[in-house]
Structures are given as C-alpha cells and as structure tokens.
Amino acid sequence: MPRIVSLIASATEIVCALGFEDQLVGRSHECDFPESVKRLPVCTELKFNVEGTSYQLDQRVKAILQEGLSVYRVHADTLRALRPNVIVTQSHCEVCAVSLRDVEEAVCSWLEGQPRIVSLAPDGLADVWQGVRQVAAALDVPGRADALIESLRGRMQQIKERAATLAARPTVACIEWIEPLMASGNWMPELVRMAGGINLFGEAGRHAPWLAWDDLVTKGPDVILVLPCGFDLVRTRQEMPFLTRRPGWGELGAVREGQVYLLDGNQFFNRPGPRLVESLEVLAEILHRSAFHFGHEGNGWQRL
To answer: For the chain, which domains are there?
Structure first.
C-alpha cells in the first residue's frame, strides 16, 4: 500500500485525479485542492514573509537565492514520522515549489527504507502529461495515467477545434508577475493558442521572461491577462496599481476597450496538473465570450 507525500500542489491534484487521495499522508503548505487534502500534515514552509507587494516578494526571493539557498524549508522529522514510500516533488523551478535538492537533503540521513522520490519537470504541456505518467508509474497504475490524460486532452481538443473555427484571433499579453514585469512562459503560450488567441510574449516550453514596459506598449495587445504566480484574484487586484499607474497605461488599446482581465494564477494557470483544462476554459471564455460559457467568471477570472 503506497504512503504518499506530495510536496507540490499540482502533484497533489494529479495523485487525487489518479484515485490515490486516501493514500496521501502528507502535503506541502501550498497543497489546498481538493479541499479535503487540507486535513493532511504539512511538511514544508516558506523561509520568508509572504506579506507585502510583488516587488517586495521578488526582492526577498532574490536575496535568498543569491545566497545559494532554497526559499523553502522541508520538515525532515515530519517526513520521517509519516514513513512515506513515495515522495513527489519537482525540478522545474526553485521558486515555485520545493525542489528535488530540498527533498534529497531532507531524507539523506535515513539509513533504511528510503522512499521513492518522483521529481516532475513540467516546462510545457507535453511535460505535464509526462508528469502524470511518472506519478502513475511510481504508484504501479500506468493504465490510469493513460485514461486520465486521454480525458484531459480530449476536453482541451474540443475547445481547440471550436476556437479554430472562429474568425477573430485577438493578440494577448499574459503577465505572470507585476513588479518587476514578467510575461508567462511554459505551457501558457500553448493554452493561449488553443483558446484562439495570439500570444505576444513568452515561449512555449521556456520559463517566464522579463517583460519591458516599452515592449508591451509598442505591441499594444488586444487583451491583457494578469495572472501572477501564487496570487488569487483579491491579491492580484491589490497589486494592479503597479500597472495602472505606469505612463501610457490609459492609452493601451486593451485598456481603452475594457479588455484587461484578472485571473486566478494560484488555483489555475500556475499549477501544471489536471486543472490546466479549467485554465484553458477560462481563456476561451475571455477571448471568445460569445462562443464559450463554462461559468468561471467571478471565480477563475474577473474584468479589471
């Protein structure tokens, strides 16, 4: 019987989607979906205060990383007490979640019965599906991965095919961090294209790039989507003055036409797991409101 600890929110969602929620014995401090996983012991914590502006958070993270340290702390004693035989973590981003290095350091003192460590590296959509296969393989249910992936990709394909029949293809700027300004990368350019948009910044399969304000103004996107990593809708709205007070904001076409949207980057877009399907639904609703109605307005997205 597997005893699973998931140290990344998207992996927790994958484990549950594969039917192993009852075998989860521990989680990270960020794992909060499905709601029932909140009952589990927490095995990690951040090393810095999450209060403050996006600029202040960026400075705190950079200060820690410049010292060659991790921004997360793994509670090795908690892990040992839980006796997991499978631990799921990631090697995608030192800032997004607990890394493989953190986990290896936490379990290096175990003399026997070392758990199997599954490290996910989702740079693009294909990597997300590969991560599902990795988790399923560690749990000895590869067939469940195939079925889950087929279901998720099928739902996405339906949206892609319908969006492809629509004449309008708005240009889109996805903003993953507000101050300093960053565009979305990784799977986001793929999702924008599938939803019937033209992504202007960031490349599929590559990490989020810095975004110069002048470049945003010059390209003048039809739609601006603001989805900071780790921020919900309330926190994102609080941060918007960093954008709205910039010179030229009011002259942007997307602003004049009321095409600026706030998205829940914490629950949806920055979790590379099953809910990327709902993320695609959100994009389709925003970009083509006359064609798609999934009911995510107010929960997954709001107009500025």
So the answer is: 4-121 (3.40.50.1980), 167-303 (3.40.50.1980)
